[in-house]
Structures are given as structure tokens and as C-alpha cells.
Amino acid sequence: MTKVFDSGNVACALAVKDVGVDFVAAYPITPQTSVVEKIASYIAEGEMDAKYLPVESEHSALSAVAAASAVGARVFTATSSQGLLYMHEILHYAAGGRLPIVMANVNRAINMPWCLYVDHQDAVSQRDTGWIQLFAASNQEIYDSVILAYKVAEEVQIPVMVNYDGFLVSHSSMPFETLEQDKIKEFLPPLDPPWRIHPQWGGTFGNVTPSEEYVPYRYALTEDIKKAGDVIVRCSKEYEKLTGRWHGGHFETYRPEGAEYFLFSMGSMGKEMEIAVDLLREQGIAAAGLRLRVFSPFPEEELAALLPAGAKLLVFDRNLVYGSAGGALLQLAKAAFFNRRDSLQVIGISLGLGGEDLPASVLVAKAREMMEVCK
Amino acid sequence: MREIRLHGRGGQGVVTLAELLAKTAIKTGLEAQTLPFFGVERRGAAVKAAVRLDHTPIKIRSQSYQPGILVLMSENLLEIGLADGLADKAVIIANAEKPLPIARHQWLLDAEIIAIKNNLVFGGEPFINVPMLGALCRVLDLPFSALEETLKEQWSEDKALPNINAAREAYDTVWDAGVPKEEKNNE
Hints:
The complex is a heterodimer of chains A (375) and B (187).
Chain A: E1 3-7, H1 8-19, E2 23-26, H2 34-44, E3 51-54, H3 58-70, E4 75-80, H4 82-86, H5 88-96, E5 102-107, H6 121-124, E6 132-136, H7 139-156, E7 160-165, E8 173-177, H8 181-187, H9 211-243, E9 251-254, E10 261-266, H10 269-282, E11 287-292, E12 294-296, H11 300-306, E13 312-317, H12 328-337, E14 345-350, H13 360-374
Parallel strand pairs in A: 2-3, 2-4, 4-5, 5-7, 6-7, 10-11, 10-13, 13-14
Antiparallel strand pairs in A: 1-8, 6-12, 9-11
Helix pairs in contact in A: 1-2, 1-7, 3-5, 7-9, 10-13, 11-12
Chain B: E1 2-9, H1 14-27, E2 31-37, E3 46-54, E4 69-72, H2 78-83, E5 91-95, E6 105-109, H3 111-117, E7 121-122, E8 125-126, H4 129-139, H5 144-154, H6 157-173, E9 175-178
Parallel strand pairs in B: 1-4, 4-5, 5-6
Antiparallel strand pairs in B: 1-3, 2-3, 6-9, 7-8
């Protein structure tokens, strides 16, 4: 285990190197971040034995890694903001093709108007593409989540997106620990896909299907992604045994004992929320933090089971569902409680768009406003 | 927690300065975090970075509003630095010959002279981030040995040496200008 002090993007690149990825394709220009620049330099310096293919667009980047994944390579790409949107078509292809791709997405606002800074609209817009989506809130969690993502993707044959907040985490340096490559191999054995495109084996990939073949295929994807939630938790526990590092299962909870208000959020805001919870507790308010790590598949049964009787869920969304009262987490949380925990109160707001800063003082003020409405 | 906010211009090495400060602090057993803020991502544009040092892991994921130390790579960044806020008892460390016209506790050094004397001139520009780092470590009471170790990790021997010398000179000569009287505006 080596102690490192570096940015979230370097934490991501180091994990990709340590995992032993075979092929990386990326569009290296804005809105790309330093992740692929770092990986390109590892490969150029001979520290990483992989093929690196710079391509002319994000659409091509994901197409290239999808093709490489289909021949049995362990692959990686990274993007951000508009780049992720440009990949949208191929996101569906990759999930439908059941390709165990891992991609980092540095969450940044989308156009127009042009804005460089953090929010989650990019990832939330890709919710229904059949990808698993994880959200990390620290550089250590990024490093560990990338390794976890390969483990999960290769077990369930579904691609995984590892999200982390632009600038606030991607460009912020924090201390983190890596893991020896032999220990990673213990957790994540070399890729041995159940099938692959190979010149000696006949077969087609992605051919035209009649509805009677198409339908079971689609249902299999939705059932398997639902089951992937438990796989993520099981693999996280296995990883904890190996490393002693734990960031939570579906959620990371903070000070849940005796809590009445659960402050529900995702990404870096969830880490700052812990400071807000401490401040609220000092003010005599029984608040707890609830940070979502697995956005897709959304853990609706687990969320409904987690809250005690009489609890109130305050939802902080860093995205918008246009025309609705809040964002995607609010909608998903309401759906989770409907017919399960109908008596629980859920209220939410959208905030922090386009890098609007969210210090703990703001989170406390917003939480108190929502508490007033709950009364 | 100690919070430091640095103000400079794109290309001056402000982000590197922040990283090197954090790495030096970690060597003394502290937890650290850096958070650069890029404006329009252009050379010459105003750039800032926060460094946070603490005894426990740092959970903050937001910008710096009340730093206890404000670092100005140039005195013409004073207005920009003040506009972003600072703590009541904040100390300013500035690359300036004379005290800045503000009633705030200041430590000063002429970082350009130190950079030129120690051959830290690239493309005709004196590089002042390492002298500023030396001064900052002194004001923060971080041991010079930790800083020297950081600089040796950052650069190979021949490149590290002028940086170590410049940092040493800044560490030794940054001076406490106290709290100057606010300049009266008689107009």
C-alpha cells in the first residue's frame, strides 16, 4: 500500500493502471479532464502495459472501447459533461451489448449557457441507458470505486460509470492509499468473459432481432441491473476485508442514531453534508446524513427499509427534472416510498447547479427551510 | 483547521505551490487538502487555490471564504483577494516591497529578487512560487527540513537545488510588517 497525495483524477488514473487495463480510448480535448492525460503518460513511460487510442470524439471513444471489450479486452475511458452527452447513443449499445466497460465521468454542468463547473445533470441525463452508476466523494473512494467497478461489471456483464464531482474532487488533492497489484488480482482475477468475438468462433454480435428475441433480452438487462445493487454491496464488503476500506454500501450514513431528519444527497455534497449534520446536531436537531453511492440501480427497497418510523427525508439534488419540484433523487425517493412507506414525509430541492457553491452553512440553511415545510 | 487561500495568475505556478505546501504539511503529520479554482482557464487570468490543513481528515468540499492566511503573488491582486473574503484575524503574505495600504497583519518579501538571485527565471519571467512557498512555510511554522524534502521529491537534484536555495532565502528573509495604519484618503 502506497500513500499518495494527489488529485481525484490521478486517483482514478492510478486505479486504472493498477487494475491492469488492456485498452484505453479517449477524446483528449475539453471537456476531457487530466485523467486520460495521466494514463497516456503512464503508457508512454512504460509504467502501464496497455494500448492507448486518442480519437476524434467521445462517440468514437466509447465505440472503440466497446469494440475492444467485445473481443475480450479490459477497457477504460473517461469523459465529462458534453462528452458524456455525445456518447449517449453508444451508452445504450454498450449496456445492450452487456459489455463490462468501466468509464469515469467527471460531473460538470452542461450547455447552454456554457459553464465549466460541477453539477450532476450530465450523469442524471444518462439514467435510463442501462449503465450502473456509482458516485464517489473522496479521492480514496474514487480509487477504490474504479477497482470495485471492474469487479462488478465483469460479474454482471453490465458497464459501470464511476462519477465524481468536477473540480471539487477531480482537481482537489487529498491523501489516499493505493493497493498492491497482487492484492488487486486476488480481488479481481484476470478478465475471462463468458463470450467474445473471435475469428475462430462463429457467431454474430448485435444482429437484427425479432421482438420475441429482443424482449427477453431487454428484460434480462433490467433484472440483472436490479440484482447488481446487491453485487455492489457484497463486493464492497469483500474489498473491505482485503483493505480495511469502507465507504458504504448503497449509501453512506452519518450519525443515524435517533435521527428524525435524513439529509439525502449524492457526490461531494454528501461529504460536506456531514459537517452540516454536526452543526444541526449542535442546534439540537436530530439530523443524519445519507449519501447515495449507487445512483443506478437506485436502491429503492433499501431506502424504504432504512428510515425509522416518523423520519423525514430531505432531498438535495444537484440536478433538475425540468418542470418538476426538484431533481431525480426526489422523484426516485418518492417512488421508493410509494406503497412501501406512504406515511414518511419526503421533501426536496435542486441546488448547486453549475458549481454554485455549497458550504455547510448553506446546506444547514436549506435543511432548516425544508424542516419548516415538514412541520 | 488552518485555511490558506492563494491568489495569482495563470502560469505563475499557484496550483503547484498549493500542492507543495500540502505535501510539506503532511510530512509533519497533518491532514491536507488543496482545492484550486480555475476561472476562465487562460494564461494570465486570475487564479486561486485553497489549502486546508488539519489534524483530522478534511470533509469540506466547497470554496474558501474565511482563510486565516491570504497569499498574494502580486500586490495588484489585493482587491481580488479581499473581495473573496478572509477571517477577522487573517494574515496576508504578499510579494511586495512595501506594506500594502490596508490595516491587516502582513508578512512581506520581494519574491522576484529572490527568484532572480537563485536562477529561477524561465522564458524571461522570474518564477516566484517557490520563494512564496518558503515564506508561507515560515509563517505557518512548518520546519524547513520538511519543505526541503518536498522540493527534493518534486525535482531531480540539479533542478531542486536552486529551488531549495530560493525557498531557504525566502524562509529566512520574509519579514513581519505588522499591521500598517490604513492610508487616509484625503480627497
